[in-house]
Amino acid sequence: MSSQAKTKNGNGIQQVTASNEASLQKKYSQNPWTLVYEGAITKNEKGKVNIHPVKYKLNGIDIVANVYTPAGYDPSKNYPAITVAHPNGGIKEQTAGLYAQGLAEAGYITIAADAAYQGGSGGEPRHTDKPQFRTEDIYGMVDFIMQYPGVDAARIGSLGICGGG
Length: 165
Hints:
4 helices, 5 strands, 5-stranded mixed sheet, Rossmann fold, single chain
């Protein structure tokens, strides 16, 4: 079995092993969005999918999110949008970021946010994960992305992974 096959989980995500940990840590430290999956965006480039870090309020709590725009994004055009909610205990830079980037590559404007009480978002007590909070998180992403330049508010979908769905 090749070393590449040993480090892939079948979904293009590189697994951390003793032999590649230092290399992945270097990639992580060089990436402004701390994305670590294979093919993750490490800088915004004209003509490619780009990440736009954003902040907004949800029920008085500061929420941090990343909006992903498709290659050749033009805010005067109309794009469908998708909210991407991360799994329980996750953050926007992990699985949700992978899906958000892939959907942006397919032409959608996407948003992946850290849920309230988790990751870079505010709220106390920390690491609280209740279904009603996650529902509010998704509504908050929809409310925010509806106002984003270029989003067609009549074409918004949601994707949730594990507890995010």
